[in-house]
Design goal:
Blueprint: E1 2-4, E2 8-15, E3 22-28, E4 34-41, E5 46-51, H1 59-76, H2 81-95
Antiparallel strand pairs: 1-2, 2-3, 3-4, 4-5
């Protein structure tokens, strides 16, 4: 997965040590220098941005990082009980 924004590029670079979650590199698209990474934070129970030391950001860059975090959160969020029931009903209808 590669996401390109105005100032940054975010790309998947592999899996965590456990192999359960993805790790993403955040790179400045002008200099191609890594400015941080995005990985699973078990305390927050969602992905978080880990900036490199001595880096700074303006609002557009932070907004793009936040947009990406929301995207991966939606992709990872499990179905609600109601959604699971609806999916079972749909599957049951398709089988008959």
């Amino acid at each position: 997965m590669i996401e390109k924004y105005k100032w940054i590029i975010i790309k998947e670079i592999g899996k965590s040590a456990s192999g359960k979650t993805s790790v993403f590199s955040v790179v400045n698209n002008l200099s191609l220098i890594q400015i941080g990474n995005i990985r699973w934070n078990s305390s927050y129970r969602k992905y978080a941005f880990y900036p490199e030391m001595e880096t700074y950001y303006e609002e557009e860059c932070l907004r793009d990082i936040a947009t990406f975090l929301e995207k991966v959160k939606k992709e990872r969020t499990p179905l609600t009980v109601k959604e699971k029931k609806q999916n079972k009903k749909i599957k049951g209808v398709n089988k008959t």
